[in-house]
Design goal:
The protein has helices at 22-32, 44-56, 70-83, 99-103, 111-123, 125-137, 160-180, 206-216, 225-236, and strands at residues 10-14, 36-41, 61-64, 89-92, 142-148, 185-192, 247-250. By secondary structure, the protein is an alpha/beta fold. The protein has a 7-stranded parallel β-sheet with strand order 3-2-1-4-5-6-7, with helices on both faces. α1 (22-32) links the parallel β1 (10-14) and β2. The radius of gyration is 17 Å and the shape is globular. The N and C termini lie far apart (37 Å).
């Protein structure tokens, strides 16, 4: 990136686990553009991996936050408010489903497994956006970005309850965009093609999914985390000024294919 389009901007990033995380590619692009970044982690095991990365980008805030807990989300935003008083960019790159719910047939998903997947992967965007709103208002607007996958729209074998969670997430993006549009706060999702990350490793047959995507998509090559970082930077930057409520695909065109 040649110009510092995010100079003076403050970004809060949920979902950095390690150097393979899509959140890491996004963080690097925002940082290259001059943004100051804050990060969260859900537990000590993740903290160990992500802290050195966050520190390498000079993050002034690295906060514990299990997004299943309202109190954690509230204390995260309270810390951001205390440190910065404002916020420009919120990145939601968080998803979770119980492994057993990704191994069985979808019809066998338990009530609890359904609740957990939807709670962490979709609902969490709502309290985050709600708490970001007053901080972004102080800037005359802001941008919220989450990550989805095509399993929200079509059946992808083994994606199961996560596909239902992503459908809820994409619908939430539209409703949030409607709520917050008058305050010039934009809310969008990036629907990314498969990338080998920690979360992806939880999906049965992920390697086959990667191979199939490469074979079937029009460009005949898989995407990289950097492609997601580039699109995120576009959406969060001036190019995204009039884009809200959208799910944008970076998947080498896979979503246009019928078979
Ligand atoms: P990742 O494992 O690096 O990131 C997932 C993150 O979710 C981790 O940082 C993890 O700590 C966090 N998380 C899980 N439960 C949490 C909780 N209770 N509280 C707080 N954080 C929690 O994997 P990733 O692939 O970079 O995933 C980021 C996002 O991208 C997810 O929403 C995922 O569904 C989405 N996505 C991934 C792909 C892919 O192929 N990797 C494709 C499309 C969309």
């Amino acid at each position: 990136m040649s110009t510092k389009i995010f100079e003076g901007k403050k970004a809060l990033i949920f979902g950095l686990a390690n150097e393979r995380s899509l959140a890491w590619a996004i963080a690097q692009r925002l940082s290259e553009g001059g943004a100051e970044l804050a990060f969260t982690y859900p537990n000590e095991a993740i903290e160990k991996r992500m802290r050195p990365l966050a520190e390498s980008l000079g993050a002034p805030l690295i906060l514990p936050c299990d997004v299943a807990r309202d109190s954690d989300i509230e204390s995260t935003f309270a810390a951001v408010k205390e440190k910065w008083g404002v916020l420009d960019i919120l990145i939601h790159a968080v998803a979770f489903a119980n492994r057993e719910d990704l191994d069985k047939r979808f019809v066998e998903t338990s009530r609890e497994g359904f609740r957990v997947a939807l709670d962490i992967s979709a609902y969490s965007l709502l309290p985050m956006t709600r708490l970001a709103e007053p901080l972004m208002e102080g800037r005359g607007g802001g941008t919220v970005l989450t990550l989805s996958y095509y399993g929200a729209v079509k059946v992808i074998p083994n994606y199961n309850v996560m596909g239902v969670a992503k459908a809820a997430l994409e619908a939430s993006v539209r409703y949030l965009a409607h709520d917050l549009g008058p305050k010039k706060i934009r809310v969008n999702a990036i629907s990314a093609g498969p990338v080998k990350t920690l979360a992806a490793a939880g999906i049965k047959g992920f390697r086959d999914m990667l191979a199939m995507a490469e074979q079937k998509n029009p460009l005949k090559e898989n995407i990289s985390a950097e492609d997601v970082g580039d699109l995120a930077a576009f959406l969060c930057g001036p190019g995204g000024k009039h884009i809200t409520g959208s799910t944008l695909y970076v998947d080498s065109g896979a979503h246009i294919m019928g078979a």
